[in-house]
Structures are given as C-alpha cells and as structure tokens.
From TrEMBL:
Name assigned to this protein: RIP metalloprotease
Cofactor(s) the record lists: Zn(2+)
Membrane topology qualifier: Multi-pass membrane protein
Spans through the membrane: 5-22, 28-51, 116-141, 312-333, 363-381
Stretches assigned to the PDZ domain: 135-204
Chief localisation class: membrane
Keywords, ordered alphabetically: Hydrolase, Membrane, Metalloprotease, Protease, Transmembrane, Transmembrane helix, Zinc
Family per record: Belongs to the peptidase M50B family.
Organism: Caulobacter segnis
Any one GO molecular function term: metallopeptidase activity
Pfam families for this protein: PDZ_6, Peptidase_M50
Subcellular localization, as worded in the UniProt entry: Membrane
C-alpha cells in the first residue's frame, strides 16, 4: 500500500506540473493576443475546487488529475478551427450579442498567425520549463563527467568483435565528439544494430573502429525491463561534476534540452520504421512506475527528513524536465487533437485563405483521437508486460 501511494502521488505531482505549465503557455499566449477565455482546468471531470478571477475566467481543480485544458470563449468545436459557414454564423451571433467590436476578442477571429502562436505556446512552455530546471541543476550540481575509457571488454560482445582494447579512449562516434562516458552511452543506446564509426585514442595513435551495438534487454530498477543498444565495454572511471556559471547556465541547459529533443526524434523515427521493437513504447503506467521508483531511490539512505525531501525534490524536478521535453515534442506531432494538428490546419488556412471544411475537420479529429487512444492502450499493454503484472496476476491463481 505504501509503494502504491508513493507511485500515485509521484505520478500526480509530476504530471500536474508538466501539464499545468503546458496549459499556462496556451493561456498566457491567448491573454497576450487579447483572446477571451472561459475556463482553465487542472485535471478533467467534475471540479473539486473552482473560482473566478477579475477577468471572469473560471479556474478549476478537477477530480481526474491526469491532464488539463484551456477553454476559449465560443470554443465549441473540438478542432478549434470552424469552417467558413460556421464562422459566419458565429460572427453573426456575436455581433447580435456584443456588437461588432466584440468579435475581435474571440479566438476564431484572430489572425491565423496569432492562433498559431497560441497553439505552439504550450510545447514551447514545456521546453522552457525543462531549460530552467536544467539550468538550476547545472549551476547547483553540474553535469556528470567521466572519461569514455575502456577499462574492460566483454567476451563475445560487439566491442570485442570490433577490436576494442583495454585502455582505449573513445573520442568520437560517427564524427561526433564524445567527451564523456555518458555521451557514449546515450549515443550507443539508441543505435542497436546500426554500425558506428568510432575514433579511438590508443596510446599516441588514433584508430578507427567500426562496431555494431547489440540490442540487449536489461532490468533497470527505475525503468524496469528495457531493450537498449550495448557495445560490451566496461568503464570504471570516477564521475566528477562540472558546474555551469550563472551566465552560461541557460545556454548550456538549452544545448542539453536540444539534445533531448533530437534523441526523442531519432528514437521515434527508428520505432516508426520498425528498426526498434514497438514493445519499448511506454505510457502512463511507465511514467508512474518511473516517478515512484525515482522517489523511492532518492529517499533511501537519507540521514534525515530534510535531506530526504531535498533529494526527492531534485530528482522529481529532473524527471519533470525530461517528461516536459517528451510531452512538448509529442504535442508538436501533426496529429489532429494535438497542437501539431492545429498548426497543420492553420498552415492550410494560411495557404488556402480559408479554414478547412467542417467535415474534414471532424474526420481528422475522430482519426486523431482514435490514434491517440490506440497508442495509449498499446503503451499500457507494454507497461503491464514490462513490469510483469500479468505474471503476478497469474501467480495469484496458481
């Protein structure tokens, strides 16, 4: 029961922060563009707590804390892009109620570039949140630094087959600089079954070696069972931490976040093209497991409550930064119901000089919703398998 409570509370906290920042991005962009807003909700379902501010916006904390939304005035179309006929009818209704000047405050009658800014503001807010968290972490703690030195080669592994030797220092992979062992791990883990051209410093010489990481399954205490690319080398170096200065923290953090975005894009591309097994896709259950495991691992061994709270807070914020980048990236995918789908429709409107037809919008919305729901179910199935839930349930009846 204690573990379950930790997992639930950790998941709610992490998701609530990420989603709230995302929706606040839409909210503040809409405010800046003069859009009338009816409601800002943290969570879905019946409101547990609600109040109205001086602008008439209803703020809610709802019963299901797994998302949130901003509802603009007059926003009855799920795609938020009514067709020309609906626009005309809506405009006529607004003019009757509020006069001609009232039209300008409605989202649907804003210039397409303003609507695009409002749509993209959510993902951008996620990226900014991640940058700010990483910047504070880089100043206070620093980035881990450990030389990419080969201290041992696993028998029969990809590194042995490629000719790696003890004492080699890996300085580049496919022409990209490898400064630390963490850089090497990140690069190799995504490239199972892809040949990599390594530049290795061996004594006073530089040697070129080509190795193909093998896809292996590991059981990580944080992520559970997962498949990753491995070379089969050992590294026993001492990890040091290099801190950023206050002036360099934001640029350094931006580089870190950009690297995370590129990693997600590359990994997703390999999944879509079938180069990596689809059972690696994780969802809400995986997020919950990771959040709970991070909280437990951070709390263990703490000498006092204050230290434990600080460790849990720091690890949770780093998880929030990582999840924020992932959610920001996924929301930019050109799928109806996501921000990227809205941007695609606005691009069509800007080129065609008219909104997409209502029936096309409705069809796209239904297809996008079905795709997202199907993805969530598939990810949940993977998570249940990854954490051996089915084996556990089966064991109860044997």
């Amino acid at each position: 029961m204690t573990d379950a409570l930790i997992f639930i509370l950790s998941t709610v906290f992490v998701l609530s922060v990420v989603v709230t920042i995302h929706e606040l991005g839409h909210y503040w962009a809409a405010r800046a563009c003069g859009v009338a807003i009816d409601c800002f909700s943290i969570g879905f379902g019946a409101p547990l707590l609600s109040w109205r501010d001086k602008r008439g916006v209803e703020w809610r904390i709802a019963a299901i804390p797994l998302g949130g939304y901003v509802r603009f005035s007059g926003d009855e179309n799920a795609a938020s892009v009514p067709d020309q006929d609906n626009l005309a009818a809506m405009r006529e209704s607004i003019v009757r109620r509020e006069g001609e000047e009232g039209v300008a405050k409605y989202f649907h009658f804003k210039p397409v570039w303003q609507r695009a800014i409002i749509a993209v503001a959510g993902p951008v807010s996620n990226f900014i949140l991640a940058i700010l968290i990483m910047a504070v972490f880089l100043v206070m703690v620093g980035s881990p630094q450990r030389a990419a030195t080969v201290n041992g080669v696993a028998p029969g592994g990809a590194a042995e087959a490629a000719g790696f030797r003890k004492g080699d220092v890996i300085v580049a992979a496919d022409g990209r600089k490898i400064a630390t062992f963490q850089d090497l791990q990140g690069y190799v883990s995504l490239r199972a079954n892809l040949p990599i051209d390594f530049t290795v410093k061996r004594g006073e010489q530089q040697v070129r070696l080509t190795a193909t990481p093998r896809l292996v399954e590991i059981n990580d205490k944080i992520s559970g069972r997962m498949k990753t690319g491995q070379l089969g080398i050992e590294n026993a170096g001492i990890t040091q931490f290099k801190r950023s200065t206050v002036l360099s923290a934001i640029p350094d953090a931006t580089v870190e976040v950009w690297g995370m975005i590129k990693t997600i894009g590359f990994y997703l591309g390999r999944l879509v093209t079938g180069q990596l097994p689809a059972d690696q896709i994780s969802g809400l259950i995986g997020i919950g497991h990771t959040a709970g495991a991070v909280t437990k691992a951070s709390a263990q061994g703490a000498p006092d409550v204050a230290t434990m709270a600080l460790r849990v807070f720091i690890s949770s914020m780093l998880l929030i930064a990582s999840l924020s980048v992932s959610i920001g990236f996924m929301n930019l995918l050109p799928i109806p119901v996501l921000d990227g789908g809205h941007l695609l429709m606005y691009a069509y409107e800007a080129i065609a000089k008219r909104p997409l037809r209502a029936d096309f919008q409705a069809a796209g919305f239904r297809a996008g919703l079905a795709l997202i729901l199907g993805f969530m179910l598939f990810a949940a199935w993977n998570d249940l398998n990854r954490y051996d839930v089915f084996k556990f349930i089966g064991g109860l009846f044997t």
